[in-house]
Design goal:
By secondary structure, the chain is largely without helices or strands. Helix content is 11%, strand content 10%. The chain has 1 helix and 2 strands; from the N terminus they run E-E-H. The protein has one helix at residues 43-49, and strands at 26-28, 34-36.
Amino acid sequence: MRCTYAVDRPLPRRFIPGIHKHIPIAAQVDDGDWIAYEAPPTVLDALKAGGLDPLAFVRRG
């Protein structure tokens, strides 16, 4: 079973999964422990893990 809840709260700045390595948000359910959000790997980390040079994708000129 999977349940998804959403809330709209202001954050001090925008965080983008895939760009930001750490996104400081957490959730708590029924007074339980806080569960930290685990951001997915960044695009940079994924390129490096795949053996690709991240600078090869930078547009120059």
